[in-house]
Amino acid sequence: MRASLPKQFPLNVYDELLLHLDNPASPLGQQLEVRVSGPLDEERLSRAILDAAHRHPMMRVSLAPPVAGSTDYQWRLHDELVQAPLRVIHDCHEETLHEARTALHSSPIPLAEPPPFRCTLAHCGGGGDVLMINLSNTASDGVGLYRFLVSILRAYAGLGDPQPQQDLLAAREAGREPDQRLLSDGFNRLNRLLEMLGTTLSPPARIATAGKEDDTGFSFMPVRFSAAQTAHLQALRCGGATINDLLAAALHLAIQRWNTEHGQSTGRISMIMPMNTRPEAYRNELASNLSMWVNVISRAGERTDFDQLLEAITRQTSNLKESVTMAVLVDLMHELRGLPAWMRQAIPALLPLSGNRIGSTTALGNLGAIRSPLPAGSDVALRELWYSPACRMPMGLALGALTLDDHLHLSFRYHRQQFSREGAWAFAEIFLDILNPGARL
C-alpha cells in the first residue's frame, strides 16, 4: 500500500450506498469478537489498536463537512488517532458479556469524527478475555474488518504485519468514472441494477416476530460447533454446494418453518449476501468496502425439501461467483454513481413508501475458513471468533459465520423488537435442527 494518501478522498459507491441506508435507530455496524486464552493488558491493547489503525487508513477517517453546491461525499483522513476507542469491563461473566455486546452494537457510530469503530475489552477471568469490535459498514466490509483485527492481534503480540503493495485508492476507485449517457437514462439503469440485485415489485417475506426484548438495539446468540459437528456438515454437501450454500439453505428453510409455526405466510425469501470483489492477488487484504451486496432468493415451491432448496441456492451462488456475472454487477453498481445526487439519496427513502420492496428478508455473511493469524507459542491464542453482518430493519435477523481452526462459529444477530431471547433461541433451534440430518423431514 502506498505510503501517503490525500487528506480527503471520495466515498466509493459501496460506502455511499451504505451511508444512505444507515439509520441511528437501526445502525449498520458489523460485529467481530475474539476470545483469547488468557488476560489482555489494557494499555498494550490500546497501543495495538492505534498501531493497527495507523496501518489501515479507513480506520482513521471521518466524513468531511459538506461543501456548498457539491454533490460528492468525501472522507477526511486523519494522521493518527488521539486515543483508542476502548471501553473496559472487569469481572465479566456470560450475562454481563451479553449486556456489553448489546450496548456496543446498539449504539450508532457517528462518522463526523474519527474513528468509524468502537471496541470493548471484557476481562472474563479463567474463561479468557474478549475483545469486541463494532465497525461502521460505511467504512469497510467484513473482510476488511477481519484484516483490521489481524493487525491488532499481531501488533499486540509484537509481530510484523506486512501490507500489500496494492494502492488503496486505486482499488477503491476502480470503475468509478460513470458513463455520462447514464444521466439521461437514470431510472432505467436504476431499475436494471435493482433487478440484478434480486428485487422485484412484490415485497420480500418478513420473519414473524416472537416477543421482544426492547424497542431498540440488537442482541446476539453465539453458537459454536465441535470439530466433529463441523466435519459432519461436509456430508450434507452435494452438487457442488459449499458450506455457505448449506447455511443459506438452512436459513431460508428455517424462516419458512418458523413463519408456518406462527401462522404467517412466507412467499419469496430474499437474503442479502456480501460477495468479495477483491482480485485474487489481495483477496483477504485492504480494510475498505470492496464487497458487493447480492440477493439469494427462494420461492415457496423450492422449499418443499432441503435437497431441492440446496440445489436452487447452489445454482444461484455459482452463477453469482462467475467472473462475468460479477463484472456485470460491479459495473451496474458503478453506474449508480452516474445518477444525479438527489436520485442516489432518494433510494433509501423509497423503502417505506414502497412497502420495503427494495429490501431483504435476512442476511448471511460468511468470512470462510480461518486459521489463527498468530504463530504457535504466541502469548495470545485465539479460542473463539465471532462475526455478524449489519442488519437493517425491517430485516429482523442476520447470521454471521466463519470457521476457526475447524470449528464453525455462528452468530445470530437480531433486533430486540423482532425477538425475545427465548424467541431467538427457538428460531435458532429450528435452524440447527435443519442442519441435523436425523431431524430433517
UniProtKB/TrEMBL annotation:
What is any Pfam family matched here?
Condensation
Which residue windows are transmembrane per the record? none
Show the InterPro entries listed in the entry.
CAT-like_dom_sf, Condensation_dom
- Identify the residues that the record assigns to the Condensation domain, covering every copy: 30-319
Going by the entry's taxonomy, the superkingdom of the source organism is recorded as: Bacteria
Which protein are we looking at? Condensation domain-containing protein
For this protein's source organism, the top of the classification is: Bacteria, Pseudomonadati, Pseudomonadota, Gammaproteobacteria, Oceanospirillales
